[in-house]
Amino acid sequence: MINDTRLRESPTPRGNLEPGLHPGLDVATPACASHGSSVYAALDLGTNNCRLLIACPSGDSFRVVDSFSRIVRLGEGISTTGCISDAAMDRAIAALSICRDKIQSKKARRLRLIATEACRAAANAEGFRTRVAAETGIELEVIDRETEAALAVKGCAPLLDSGGRGAILFDIGGGSSELVRIERDPSDRNAEPRIKAWMSIPLGVVTLAERFGGRDVTPEIYAAMVEAVAEHVGPFAAENGGDLADMHLLGTSGTVTTLAGIHLNLARYDRRRVDGIWINDADITATIGKLLAMSYQERAENNCISIDRADLVLAGCAILDAIRQSFPLPRLRVADRGLREGMLVEMMREDGALRTA
User: Fold this and answer.
1) How far apart are CA 58 and CA 62, in angstroms?
2) Which of 35, 51, 100, 145 has its Cβ near the most Cβ atoms within 10 Å?
3) Count of alpha carbons within 13 Å of 253, Cβ hemisphere only?
């Protein structure tokens, strides 16, 4: 657990200055034509999703030039078998091959390509990474939970309430979930957020749904899910849940973005409408109640959920409810951003490519 630290720089991957792709893979290094600056790529292979973001520095932020996201369920079955299945490997490698092609097409110069809980937990993770390198040229960096939490904070920090004192940030993943208490001096708008404490629990939407079932979730099953998560969150909240004045929840995950889409009654998911939206506590409760009242088929047919998330979304809601019980804050800010954005900001800052205030 970190106490009262600045957003720490995550460890620089071993190897060359620009790690991530196999030495035999051809990646050129031209400038981003419209900005005269270099192209950066950040890839996050999680337990459930494979996500890529390619961007160029622009002032004190960056401009996205390409992105990719696909549900691959790399962690499917790990909670029972302890291993990544061949089918899950195939799905992930197919997605990673697309990512490699995009990285080459955009001629990204600086790369960070990470893997998280599934590759931390699986007994055959090293064999999977070897296969990925052989078939795609991508060399995955497995990050620890502390680094994962720090990157999530960096990616989401711009959404902290500028007039507030901080937030309880949470990232609901497929195989794990991270919570971070962030604080900053509200009298100094340029003050760097500080991580006061953090924790990671070995429960995410995939692991929780596999444990309790995600298709036909009764009120009793849902309550059991919430209780299971609360057992992990409770001790952290007891130590770090005091004095929440002028703070808010800040959530980054498919769970909270899906909830936002349902809350807004979107015909289909729209990131521009969702990222940064505020939802009050009563509306969160109402939206979760709406999801609990839906059948599996109704969830699968909803364009903000889709069949890919229909059996996972209620597990995510249970994790959120356990967090809300432990940290009873009146507002949640939704972030459709996270690790990839954190990696991009970190690399660009290291290179002096972002304008400072």
Assistant:
1) 5
2) 100
3) 32
Give pairs for 282-291: CB < 8 Å, separation 24+.
284/259, 284/320, 284/324, 284/332, 287/259, 287/262, 287/263, 288/259, 288/317, 288/320, 288/321, 290/262, 291/259, 291/262, 291/317
* Highest CATH level, class, for 10-145: alpha beta
pTM of the predicted structure, to 2 decimals: 0.85
Q: Assign domain 155-335 to its CATH architecture.
A: 2-Layer Sandwich (3.30)
**Where does CATH 3.30.420.40 sit in the chain?**
10-145
Q: What is the DSSP letter of 356?
A: P
Residue 183 β-bridge partners: 166, 194
Angle at alpha carbon of residue 222, lines to 217 and 228, rounded to 5°: 135
Q: Which two tokens stand for residue 18?
A: 């620009």
- For the chain, strand residue ranges (E) read 5-6, 31-32, 37-38, 40-45, 49-58, 61-71, 110-115, 141-142, 166-172, 177-183, 194-201, 247-252, 278-280, 331-335
Q: Are 37 and 109 a contacting pair, CB within 8 Å?
A: no
CA distance to 91, 222, 307, 316, per residue, from 215 (Å): 22, 11, 11, 13
Residues of the chain with CATH 3.30.420.150: 155-335
Cβ pair 217, 292 in contact under 8 A: yes
Reply yes or no on whether the pLDDT at 11 is more than 70: no
Q: Round to whole Å and give the CA distance between 333 and 275.
A: 8
Answer yes or no: are the C-beta atoms of 292 and 222 closer than 8 Å. yes
